Every structure is written in C-alpha cells, then in structure tokens.
Amino acid sequence: MTSIGVTCDIHASTEAQQWCSQCDQALCDDCVHYHSQAKASRNHTTISTSDFRKLPAFVRSLKKTCNKHGEKTDFFCLVHENLCCPYCIQTMHKQCDGVENLQTLTKNVKSSAFVEDLETNVQDIKTSIEELLKDRTQNILNIDKQKDSLLKQIAKTKSDIINYLNILEKQLVCDLTEVINKEKSRLGKLVRDLQERKSKIHQIYEDLRTIKQFGADIDVFLAIKELNQTVQTEESFIVDIQTDTSLFQTEILLQKSENIETLENNFKTFGKILIMSKPPKKNLMKKKKTQAQIFISKVHDVIIENGQKTDKIVNEIIEDGNVEASGSVNTPEQEKEESVDSWQNFNLESSVPRCESLNVECMPRINLKCDTFLEIPERGKQLNACKILREDKLLLLINKQIIVYETNPKKFQHIDLTCQPIDLTCIDGNVVAITLYSENKICLVDISERQEIERIKTAGQCFGIDHAGGKIYTSLPHTKCIQILDYKNNVSTESTVETVHSAFYIVFSEGKLFCSNHMTNVVFCMLTSGSTLWEYSSDILLEPFCLSLNSKGDLFVACRKNRSVIVISADGSKSTVCLKNVSRIKAPRALNWCPTTDKFVVCDERSGRAIVYTYK
C-alpha cells in the first residue's frame, strides 16, 4: 500500500477527503461519488483521510497488490495462508481446495471471536506486564530494604567479634598478670636470700680484718678456723646455685592460639553476599493457542458453510507442523484412572516425536514398553528418587525411608532413616549413598544389612548425588557448586567445582556432569574442570528434576509440571518428548535408566506410583 497524500490519486490538483482500503486510493468528493456508483467498487467502504492517518504505520503500509503480477490480491489460500491474485490462483494455487474470496472471509471480522480473543489476549498481556513491572519495582525496593538490614547484620557481626575478642583479651591480660606476679615473687625471694648472704659475708670480711689488726696469733688461728666453715658453706651455695635453674633468665612470651593462627590465615571476610532466586508465588497467565490456530478454526467454519472439504486442509496443516494434532487430548472419561491389571501388557511409544525447541533438532522416536506397574503403599508422601539395580531390584526414596522392591517375587523391604532423603546413588555391592539435605550430610547405607554405615559431612546443603570411579559427586545448590569426594581414600574432599546455575539433580559420565535446575527450567552440561559445554531450555522443559543416562548416552529428564519425560542428546543438540501426559503419573519427579538391562522407571512424586518400562 502506498502512503497517503493530501491530494486525490485521480485528480492530483484536488484535495482528498476519503480513503478506500480495497482500492488503496485517496479520493476527492467527486471521485467518492463515482466510486460508490461503479459496479466494481460500490460495496467498498471508505473512511476519511483524517481517520486513515490515525491507523498504525504498519497498517497504512500493508500491500494489497501482488508483488509478482501487480494485480490486486482479492483472494486468500487457506492451505498456504497466503494472499493471492487471480494469476496466482491459476499458476500456484490451482490444486488448492481452500481458496476463498478475501471479502467473504473478512466479512464481520471486527465482531468475530478471533478479534475478541486477540483483544482479550492483548489486555491480559498488558495486565501481566503491569503486574510484572509492579513486582520488579517492588523487588528493587525490597533489595534496598534488604541492604539496610544486611548492613546492620554486618555491623552486628563486627561488634560481636570485637566483643568476643575483648573478652579473650581481658582473660589473657589476667593470665599475664598472674604469671608475672608469680615469677616476681619467686625471684624476689631469691634476691632477699642473696642480700642476707651478702651481709653475712661482708661481716665476716670486716671481722677478719679486725682480727688481723688487733688479735693475737692464737686468736687469729682459732678465728680463721671457725670463719672458714662459714665461708665454705657460702661457697658451696654459690657453686650449687650456678648448677640449678635459679639463675635462668626469665622472659615472658605470648604464644598465639592455634585457632587464632587458623583464623588469621582463613578468616578473609565476614561472609559472602549471595543472591537467592525464588520462583514467583503465582503464574500471571498461561500460554494460549496461537492466533493462527484460532483464525484457522474460524476459517474452517466458513468452509463448512460453503460445503468445502476440511479434512485435507487440517491434515496438511498438521503435517506442516504449524498446528499440533489434538488427538492426544483425553476426554473426562479417558482421564479416569485405569485398574492396575490393565497396565501389565500396555505398550507405550513416544507420543510427541516432534522437537518443541526452536534451536534444537529433533531426535529419533524412542519406543518404550510398559513392563510393570507398582502401587507403593506410602501414599501422600514425598517420592524423591529411584534406582534400578542389576539384581532386578528397585530402590525408592519415599518419606523417611528406603523402599527395596524385588520384582520377582514381588515384596517390599523398608529401611528407616532419621530425616527426609533427597537423592541416592549406588557405591558398590549393597552400599548406597543418600543425600540428607537438611543435615548437610551424605548417609551411607548397607541395604542388605538394612543399617547405616557412616555419615559424611558436606560443605553445604547437599541435593543431587552420583558415584563413579571411587568418587562421589554431590550438588550444593545454594552455593552454586558441586563437591567431589574421594571415597577410596577415607572420604576426603578432592575439589569443589563452581556451576553457572544452581545444580539440583546431577548425573556424572565420562568426565561430564549433567545438571538440572527446576527453579529456572534449565538443564546444562559441564566438565569437572568447571567449564560449561551446553545449556538447554525449552517450552517443553518445565520443572526438570531427576536425570538419567541410557546406554547410548541420551539424557532422560523428568519434567514435573507438564507431566512429561523428555530426552536430550549427550551434546545438547537434539531433543524429543519420550513420554507425555502419562496416565496415573500426575507429577513425574524420579526416574532411572539401567544401562545393563535397558529397564526404565518413572515415579510419581506424591501418589507412590511407579511404572517400569523396557526399551523396545
């Protein structure tokens, strides 16, 4: 469509008063008269040029002429969803059954349900954006408030440390005073003794001089003999005092506590400033069907009224992938749960082989056959993880228990735990490792003896866990890292790997860690060195929890929110939906694939139900 001017497109010197969208022309009053009388345009609706200028620019620039033939595009092909002119119909749309007159299709379009739905959707989006703006603005205000609170916490932490150090200082000063007083008392006693001995020796010296000066020889002889005994005693004192510790130099020193030295080396900061993301409390709106689908459904009504065929059009649209087939939608009667017996020989293939990610290729179809359906008698509890063992045993973490299920014959064993477990992995033989999130520990359990072996302290709240080559890998989502424990060498921490996202459930294979985050709806793969290889997010990935690898290296992900299990290739380039809307499984959270037997189990989070499949 050409942009409108102020003059008539026919009489260039006359000002235009009306605009005809069908003819794409500006018309003066005279032209409007002839335009309304002409057979070809008598049914055209015109608007004033002032009203036309009010239309959005993209509407004013819409073209109604064929780019290839230069003719008016008065027709619409429902099969290809294209405008077309008469020449287009004869050349490119000759075999199409759904070519309709554009004027007929657009009749009463303003009052159609399609426009109403679009207006409603736009209003819903507008309302949602307003609520999002309000929510984000409030979050900014909350962050400012949190800053004030955190500053007070930092100041209080500093004050508490200073007060504690003052107490320690006071105690140390008291100890110093006590030691000094004790040493001064000991040395003072020795000084007083030496002073007394000094006075005695001085007196002997004076007496000896007097005797020599005034005494007779016999007096001198007898006096010397008596004084000599006293002198020898003092001489022995001088010799003895030099051989013991009495003359050691006393020096008062300060020996720092080992804890203080550790504090100086490791205490680099009061703490870390962390960012914790929480999902919104409510969803503002659900994704609706695309407007193209709604429009096509209205077009189908027109076709039926005209007696045209609709099956071919619908099939071609589905084959083109523009509209998802609705044949998988269950009626209320179909949604009713089947009996347990009906599951014994039930074959289930991948219901949606088409990839729903915009940037990821589709994987081949994966076929699974239902082998066993289980009703775990712990209803209404939290089923967090499961594991298939080579001995045809199934381990389930449910509530505060490990349930060991032996399929042949069918029987249960219960192993009680002290707190809620999150994830488990097999170490060797009958030993399994379980994460105890609330206790910051990994619990080792011997399932054959039905008792705990030991508990290992972790660097934070541990969530997911896996084991390979004598090493235990556990995720610490709140610190965005994965802790690696060397289980062979008396369980020592080997390293800690930082993650780009918080990792919850994890799987290790050939130097790679596959991680899920159900809060941000992302699955990612990284090396143990810390570098991220790929990230995967999609409309079909809603609340991803447990992960498991099959014998081919494909990654299976339990998506709780949309009741699906999706499969992602090991390099993250392809994906598909393996199981969708699994009956009797309302919230799939736990799953596991046993590569040695090609058994696959999916468990419901709340109902205590599990389905075991075999790979066809």
CATH topology of the largest domain: Neuraminidase
CATH superfamily of the largest domain: TolB, C-terminal domain
* Beginning-to-end CA distance, first to last residue: 58 Å
Strands of the widest sheet, in order across it, are 7-9-32-31-30
Number of strands: 32
Major sheet size, sense and barrel closure: 5 strands, antiparallel
Radius of gyration: 45 Å
The CATH architecture of the largest domain is 6 Propeller
Please give the CATH class of the largest domain.
Mainly Beta
Structural class of the helix and strand makeup?
Answer: alpha+beta
The residue ranges in which pLDDT falls below 50 over 5 or more consecutive positions are 289-360
Q: Helical percent range? A: 25-40%
Shape: elongated
Average per-residue pLDDT, rounded, comes to 78
Tell me the fraction of residues in β-strands, as a range. 25-35%
